[in-house]
Design brief:
This protein is of the alpha/beta class. The protein has 26 helices and 28 strands. The chain has 2 domains: about 1-330, FAD/NAD(P)-binding domain; about 395-720, Aldolase class I (TIM Barrel, Alpha-Beta Barrel), CATH 3.20.20.70. One of its GO terms (molecular function) is FAD binding.
Length: about 750
């Protein structure tokens, strides 16, 4: 087997070494355009997980690395003159030159042909004479560019500029330091990579970089500016560069990683921001997986398919975490006024990979200090601290998210709703939300949707609120009012979500006459007179909700329903006062909000659910969502419930764990408005992390509460909490401890007989 490797970085070299070690008959050539000692970074950080893979695959390389590594456990966070230290994190790093030297030596010992200062022939040409071509040619991969139609690359350039530098001494911890300069916020990321040297990365927003004149500075001037800015951290010592240049990070994603017998590896296939770890780590892990798949699979095509299948989900998860981290640093200025420990906790948990639970395990004393500063009573997890909205105090931070049940008859909630909402009220959440309750018959999504437009419906809802307040004292019950707009007159979810009814359709209305999807009914554009009628319908429903005894009212302005349809430029194409600019698109939703707020009791809170992005070109953006949230807050909204999408059928959401929470975080920390975070929050550890870091005030969970109506009580039991934030109903108290299970441990051996 003849193998060509384009690129002599760590990923390409290690792939070559592994393939040769597994089969010495392989003829492997590595092309590297630079000299053996050329490298454009300084230190490399590898995780214990990656090192374990190296140890298993090639003990000789592992032993050589072990001799070079420097290790440390602490992270120092320096902000406004105060240094906070969190321990127990565990890092290992070495110089990039040393890593390359180890891999060069290993490749030569194995008989691999290393060609330095040599441009590799094009991948297409190599593929004609080699059985496998590994393109490890970096973020600017010429192979990927030459075969873009096959690989389907998507490159995203981000908003910060950064530069790699080095200091000739070793920091004693991984150091994050924030400098507030006359030009804006600048951050330092630094870590040791040998006993006498450290990597120093300086990063700032593009506009700060330009304001500081660094767009006109040469390499030496840039290093001097950075050294002066962080003189205290450096002890007045200089920074050195190595062909260092200011760069804007680019996230690389490819639709496919192989083309024929050519395969992408490392940065050529994917990139992840340096703030969560090393691209070298991912490249080395790619090499391990590729070599293993070539060994395990019957042919090259199967091996390349297996390699991508194995690595893609791991890389996608890493890239989601990296994006969360880099966006946190892009928005760093919004967090600067947080209390010191909360700021530090926020920084440490920014990627959502490190959680409250992880921190507590690594450094209990630090985490306890964060909790104490936050105001958690002793032995109380953050999620069980109370929260006040207007005249309502919620006993904990858990919300049962609104979930359409499609089980009403003629808009009347029945026994199903009583049991469904009652069970979740008994389950311990601080706030239980109804599904979207429709303000008119025409405003229903499906024939099974609940309403509040008749006295009979109000009576049925009163039965539910009475049960919750009588049987689960201290639990708040909220009602979400909305109108389906152009997404109405459809089948029940399990019969065909968003599909028009086969018969019995009712006419639809919307901001503009645009069907939701091909085959959907075309709505009528609302006239001024019809808008006035709709305001009255919302007001009447709000008055009924107040008489029913609901504790909180939420106005549904998200997910492409009627009011959301006014907010998005993709669904509002009106030319009158209710369209055009964002101010025009906000006009009708704000009129409805004002009318409902007036009808709703003054001491009871009112929230608004918005879609913070449409996940579609030309739609509502994250910046728009700030203006929308600010407008509702000015009109008296007590909190913003921040969801995303479902506005247009061609959306492309970036799904993942807690994927919507950054939008809530940005609104909260930019505007100072309380927020409810939603979106694939699935664990109590996530809730604790979001609340403690100040990214959200309340967390709404949907599917976890379908899986387990007593999710909150079980979260309390699993954390050993039995305080007022999660009281068990008296009839259930016998079940408040985790049930015992059979023994799984075995007696330890006491004697060894030879």
């Amino acid at each position: 087997m003849r193998v060509a490797v384009i690129g002599g970085g760590p990923g390409g070299l290690y792939a070559a070494a592994l393939l040769k070690r597994l089969d010495p008959t392989r003829e492997i050539t590595v092309w590297e355009r630079n000299a053996p000692d050329d490298t454009f970074g300084f230190g490399v950080v590898l995780s214990d997980e990656t090192l374990g893979g190296i140890e298993h695959a090639d003990p000789e390389v592992y032993r050589a690395l072990q001799e070079e590594f420097v290790r440390w456990d602490d992270i120092d966070i320096v902000h406004r003159g105060r240094t906070l230290t969190s321990g127990g994190h565990g890092f290992a790093a070495l110089g990039r030159r040393r890593l390359l030297g180890i891999l060069h030596r290993r490749c030569r010992d194995l008989g691999i042909d290393l060609r330095f200062r040599a441009e590799a022939p094009p991948a297409a040409e190599l593929a004609r004479t080699h059985d496998l071509v590994i393109a490890a040619d970096g973020v600017h991969s010429t192979t990927r560019t030459a075969h873009a139609a096959a690989f389907g690359p998507r490159l995203t350039t981000h908003r910060c500029r950064y530069i790699w530098l080095a200091a000739d001494f070793a920091f004693d911890a991984f150091r994050f330091e924030i400098a507030e300069t006359e030009h804006g916020v600048v951050q330092l990321h630094a870590y040791p990579f040998s006993r006498d040297a450290s990597t120093v990365i300086v990063e700032m927003r593009e506009e700060v970089w330009r304001a500081a004149g660094l767009d006109r500075a040469d390499e030496g001037e840039s290093a001097a500016w950075c050294a002066k800015t962080f003189a205290e951290a450096l002890g007045g010592r200089p920074l050195r560069s190595n062909n260092s240049a200011w760069t804007a990070f680019r996230t690389v994603v490819n639709a496919r990683w192989s083309h024929g017998t050519t395969v992408l590896l490392g940065d050529a296939a994917h990139t992840a921001h340096f703030s969560i770890g090393s691209g070298t780590k991912l490249a080395v892990e790619d090499a391990l997986a590729l070599a293993a798949c070539l060994q395990e699979q019957p042919d090259t095509a199967s091996a390349l398919a297996a390699y991508e299948e194995e690595r893609r989900p791991v890389v996608a998860s890493t890239q989601r975490a990296a994006r969360a981290s880099l966006e946190w640093f892009e928005e760093l200025a919004t967090y600067l006024d947080q209390p010191p420990y909360q700021f530090a906790c926020n920084l440490l948990t920014r990627s959502r990979r490190v959680t409250h639970g992880n921190l507590r395990l690594r450094d209990r004393r630090f985490t306890t200090a964060v909790e104490r500063e936050y105001g958690c009573p002793e032995h109380t997890p953050p999620m069980f601290t109370p929260f006040r909205l207007r005249g309502l105090t919620l006993r904990n931070r858990v919300v049962v998210s609104p979930m359409d049940m499609y089980s009403a008859h003629d808009g009347v909630p029945g026994d199903f709703h009583l049991v469904h909402l009652g069970a979740r009220a008994l389950g311990g959440a601080g706030l239980i939300m109804t599904e979207m309750v429709c303000v008119s018959e025409q405003g229903r999504i499906t024939p099974g949707c609940a309403g509040l437009y008749t006295p009979g419906q109000a009576d049925a809802w009163r039965r539910v609120t009475d049960f919750v307040h009588d049987q689960s004292p201290g639990t708040a019950l909220g009602v979400q009012l909305g109108h389906a707009g152009r997404k109405g007159s459809t089948k029940l979810m399990w019969q065909g979500i968003d599909q028009p009814l086969d018969d019995g359709n009712w006419p639809l209305v919307a901001a503009s006459p645009l069907p939701y999807r091909p085959g959907s009914q075309r709505p009528q554009e609302l006239t001024a007179a019809e808008l006035a009628v709709l305001r009255e319908q919302f007001t009447a429903a709000a008055a009924r909700a107040a008489r029913c005894g609901f504790d909180l009212l939420e106005l549904h302005c998200a997910h492409g329903y009627l009011l959301s349809g006014f907010l998005s430029p993709l669904t509002n194409q009106r030319t009158d006062a209710y369209g055009g600019s964002l101010a025009g698109r906000l006009r009708f939703p704000l009129e409805v909000f004002d009318a409902v707020r007036e009808a709703w009791p003054a001491d009871r809170p009112m929230t608004v659910r918005i879609s913070a992005t449409d996940w579609a070109d030309g739609g509502t953006t994250a910046d728009d969502s700030l203006a929308i949230a600010a407008a509702f807050a000015e009109h008296g909204a007590d909190a913003i419930d921040v969801s995303t999408g479902q506005v247009v059928s061609h959306e492309r959401p970036d799904f993942g764990r807690s994927y919507q929470t950054p939008f809530a975080d940005r609104i909260r920390n930019t505007l100072g408005i309380p927020v409810i975070a939603v979106g694939a929050i699935s664990s109590w550890d996530d809730v604790n992390s979001l609340v403690l870091a100040g990214r959200a005030d309340l967390c709404a969970l949907a599917r976890p509460h379908l899986y387990d109506p007593h999710w909150t009580l079980h979260a309390a039991a699993e954390q050993g909490y039995a305080g007022p934030g999660a009281p068990w109903p008296l009839p259930y108290q016998a079940g408040s401890r985790t049930p015992p299970t059979g023994r799984t441990d075995a007696p330890k051996p006491r004697l060894t007989l030879r």
